Each structure stands twice: as C-alpha cells, then as structure tokens.
Amino acid sequence: MRRPYRIDIFTIAFAAFIIYGSLLPFDFSVQQQDRIHATFLGIPITHVGLPDAMSNIALYLPLGLALRASLARRKYKRFTAAFFCLAFALLLSYGLELVQTIVYSRIASVGDVVCNVLGTAVGILVYLPESKLFGRFISALKRDLLRTPTALVAGVWTCVVALAALAPFDVTLDVSRIARAARHAYLWPFAKHADLFERVNQVTLAFQPADTVAPLRLWELRIAYVADVFMFLVLGVLLVHHWRQRNAGQGVAPVSNRWSPTTRTCVVTASFAMALTFVGLFVISVGFDATRILTRFLGGVAGAALYPSIIAASGWHQHAGSTARVQGMRRVIGVACILSVTYIVACELAPFRFDATTADSAHTRIEWIPLTAYLPNKLPHAILDALRQSFRFLTLGALIASFGLVAGTVPRWWLRITVGILTTSCVALLEFAQCWLPGRIPASTDALVAGVSATGGMVLAAALFNAYKRHNAEQYFTGATPVILNVEIPPPGKDAPVEPRPRQKVQH
To answer: Counting beta carbons within 10 angstroms of the beta carbon of residue 133, is it exposed (0 to 12), middle (13 to 18) or buried (19 or more)?
Structure first.
C-alpha cells in the first residue's frame, strides 16, 4: 500500500476545514427564511458583496492549488487534472450552499458557488509554473532571486505592507461614499488620535464603564502607528541595501550616483506612504489619516539612517559562513523576535485595563468552538482580524526559522510542529487573560491561527532558503570554467596552451 503524500493530507484537511466553516454554527432548521425570493437549482439568488466574494475566492484558492498538486503526483494530464479540480470544487460548493439553506444563521447564494469555483480556477493557474502564462514570470523570478535577492525581498515586503494597510479590502467606487470619506478625513497629524482620546475622556467623566469600544479603538490606533513605523523601517533598510549593491555593481548593472541610496530611499518611502494613505479613501474601513503619512515616512527615514548600524551589528561585511557573521545575524534576528513578540502581546492585551468584574461573565464570552466568534461579526472585519493574526505569526515563524538558516541549518519537521504547539499554548494563555479585559472576546480560533501561521512561517522561510541554495548551486556549476588536463606548463611570460598535449605511447 502506497503511503499518502503530504499534499494529499493537506488537501483532505483543508477540504474538511471548508466544510466545517461553511456549516457553523450547525443550527439546522427546515423552515425557509422570509428573505429568500428566487432560487436556482434549489439555491437562493442573493446579492454577494465584494468583501464576501473576495473571501470566497481566497478560501478556495489553496484548495485548487492543493488539488492540482495532488493530481500532478498521480501523473494526470494538465487539462484532465484541471477538469477534475473544477468539478470537485463545483460539487463541494453546491452541496455546501444547498445545506446552508437549512442552516438558520447562514445565507446561501448562487454567487458564492461562482466565487468558489473561480477561486479554485485561480489556484489551478497558480500551480502551472511551466505553462506559457507563468513560465517567463517564474524564470524571471528565479533570475532575480540569484542576482538581486534583496530587491525580491523588498518587493515582497512592499506587497505585504500594502496588504496590511488596505485590509480588509472593502473597496468602493461609489462617488457618494468617497465624498463622505473625504469629508470625514483627518487632514492634520494626530487628529484622529485626539478625537478618540476625547471620546475616552467623555466616557470616563460620564462614568460609563460599559462603553469599552473607545479605549480599545484608541490603543489599537496607537499600536497601528507603531507598527507603521517598524514596517517602513524594515522597508527602508532593504531599499538602502539594494541600491548600495546596485551602485557597487554586484550582480546587476550599476545605477547613476546622482542620488545617494539614503536620499533615494527617503524619496521612495515618502511617495509610497502618501500614495498608500490616499488610496485609503477608496477603502471604507480605512479612510484617510494624515498621521499615517508621518509615521510611515519616519519609519522609512529611520531605516535609511539606521542601516549602517544594523549592517555593522549583523556582521554582514564578514566572510559568508564565518562565526562572526552568524553570531551577528542571530543578534539582529533576536532583536527582531523580541520586537515581534512585544507587538503581539500588546495587540492581545490592549487596552491594558484589567477589570475583575468582567471575569464573572467570562464563561459566556469565551469562544470554545473554533470560528463561532467570527460568525456574528460582519465581513470584512473578521477577515481583517484573521489577516492581522496570520501576518504577525507568519513573521514570527520566519524569524524563528532564520536562527538556524543563517548557519545553513534547515529546521526539521518536528521542530516546526513543536513551535506551532508552543505558539498555540502561549496565545491561548493570552486569550484567557482577555477575560479580565473589557471589550475583548477570548477566542480559540486566534490560538489555532497563531500556531498554524507560526509553522507556516517556518515552512515558507525554509522553502525560500532551499530554493535560493539550489539555484545558487546550479549557477555555480553551470558557470564554472572547464579545466583542461594534460597541458604542458609554459615558462614565465608566455601564454598557457588551450589544447592538451597529444597522447604518447609509453615504453615499459
């Protein structure tokens, strides 16, 4: 009996996760809901919003990717595998939406089926690196990974910063909503902070302890400002390092020295910060806050200014693989891990106002069954919470894996699982501490997402390291100079021969 591949196990587990999340909270009722007017093949025809559609596409994209990889292991042809993947996604989605018609708290829709199949199709396309659609892109990505790895990392980090700033992606093109967002924009630095601070003071003076939203929103805003500074600080360090390599001509064509790398980094980060903040006008849940321009620009400038100190502390100028460089890199990674853990603890324990009276009703607020606390929340706020939680622990997992990767040691599978279990346990303790925090809901889903994301971060870091090492070795052996044996060594001052000496018969 052939052992199942890991991708098969992941496919089955992810399909089970989709079934579980689609049928929560399992409150089945055969009574039809009054809001249903028309149906298609037994499924109601209802409007699907953009955030809901994007979440369905994002949910089924990994399923299409995993199904395509699992069928590729079994030597299925490209179009046959794609047909089976789409057929499975269509049947699974249709069956779940049909069952949702008798789940009282869920709304079934034909649009969800379409979005689910579309997400599966996108996952199938992502798996086709050898196709004409992605062949040149993958080749260019491999070439950039070899020539300018810092530029590739900076590009990926820029995408991560943009996604974190624009989440939960409830984009609108409605002129009236954009005009309303412009009227409520905070055009002066720290104006939004002052507004929330005034609300907190009014709640305190009016003796309204039940209003816990304003203090929580105030601390979330403060943490978001600090996060902006550190995210753009990392981006500034990466950009300065990339442009210094270009000026030195390491692997890529050098650029003009009209602007220094520090000046160029400040200009680029300032432009990116302003563009990212202005795009927030088209995102309903984000809006415009001038403070974000200031904090993001300060982060980019701080990264450009601290670059020499960070490079000196990391021992980057030392020989690759030397003990001094490994110890220096681990010192920098350790500081990054401490900052990451501090940020995670601050996010979990905000607004830092412990109240013993709230612990009496804690058993009614704790989410014991995963995903049940996310159902009452309307999209896209649940998506935003899940994305933020995943990003925090993906970064932490990648940093933990980097401790061994800087010395060339790839973390084993048991270490990845151990880190995931320990992360889940620690976050579960922080979630339990939220019983004494007004306005917070302890959720088991957050602990599970944290553990899975930490393990995923370690897996992603190890995969990138192995890819870079493999492609670097291929380039080394491909570009090696051939050695000609049996060549007569010339006297000093003469050119070496390029042809071997003719064979001579040796007399014994």
So the answer is: exposed
**Longest C-alpha distance within the chain, in Å?**
112
All residues at 6 or more sequence positions from 67 whose CB lies less than 8 Å from its CB, including other chains: 11, 81, 84, 85, 88, 89, 120, 123, 124
Q: How far is CA 468 from CA 43, 243, 258, 465, 496, in A?
A: 48, 21, 32, 5, 36
DSSP annotation of 412: P
Q: What is the pLDDT of residues 284-339, one digit of tens each?
A: 888 899 999 999 999 999 999 999 888 888 877 777 667 888 888 888 899 999 99
- Looking at residue 323, what is its pLDDT? 81
pLDDT tens digits for 432-445? 888 888 778 788 88
The one-character DSSP state at 43 is E
Residue 146 has pLDDT above 70, yes or no: no
- DSSP string across 416-436: HHHHHHHHHHHHHHHHHHGGG
3-state secondary structure labels for all residues of 150-210: HHHHHHHHHHHHHHHHHCCCCECCCHHHHHHHHHCCECCCCHHHHHHHHHHHHHHHCCCCC
Task: Give how far Cα 275 sits from Cα of 157, 159, 225, 388, Å.
Answer: 16, 13, 17, 21
Nearest to 93 by CA among 69, 71, 109, 70: 109
pLDDT at 476: 46
Tell me the C-alpha distance between 50 and 47, whole Å: 10
Q: What pLDDT digit, counting tens, does each position of 242-267 carry?
A: 888 777 655 444 555 567 888 889 99
Burial class from Cβ neighbours inside 10 Å (0-12, 13-18, 19+) for residue 22 reads buried
Nearest Cα neighbor of 481 from 503, 466, 496, 502 is: 496
> What is the enclosing helix (H) or strand (E) of 308?
helix 290-314
For residue 302, the surrounding DSSP H or E stretch is helix 290-314
Q: Is 62 helix (H, G, I), strand (E, B) or coil?
A: helix
